[in-house]
Amino acid sequence: MHRPLPMRAALAATLILSATLLAACGARPDRSTTASIPDDYRTRHPIVLSETAQTMDIPVATGDRALTMAMRDNIRGFAADHAAKSRSAVQIMLPRGSANAATANYLRKDIRTTLTVAGIKRDQLIETSYDASGYGANAPIRLAFFAITAQAGPCGEWPEDLVVNTMENKNYQNFGCASQANLAAQIANPMDLVQPRGMTEIDAARRSTVIDDYRDIGQPPL
């Protein structure tokens, strides 16, 4: 027959059990640590915002007298991309010293017109030139503007032998780089990584419809 524990012994046992449970809660591992892998690919390959050049090359054949419909469509797409990403100037870079330089200079007016019709202001267009003496007759007209974009670091770095360095069970150098780069490329507005956008006004009619539908779910069938 077991005798009941004295009051002091029972109280001490209760305190010990409570302290054990609290210690277990306090020793919860960090969620950024997976088992025995202390490194995080988001720290090694962070997504950062930086200013990069957005470019498009327009091929120019010697003797062309006008832009093709496909070229105009591409230029309009470039202008739409500029309107969504930047308010900077758009550079029209003409080849200099190539066999098709005269043709490129002739087509620049057509390019300017296409850009302005697509919504780019005339004072945002800047004409420059570049040395294309080594291009022969294949020097393109390049359009460019600068914009803030999200991007990760370069991938494909393998400084260590994965066969040899496996004892510590850590992530390898290139782990997660492609995922971070793909995520950065899919972000339509890089500023979403810095600050959330402002909330739009509530659609009262839509809210009333959703509430009515929610209430109807709980109604018993007739």
From TrEMBL:
Keyword Phosphoprotein among UniProt keywords: no
Top-level lineage group: Bacteria
Protein name as it appears in the record: Pilus assembly protein CpaD
Keyword DNA-binding: no
Gene: cpaD
Keywords: Signal
NCBIfam families attached to this UniProt entry: pilus_cpaD
Signal peptide interval: 1-23
Pfam family, one: Pilus_CpaD
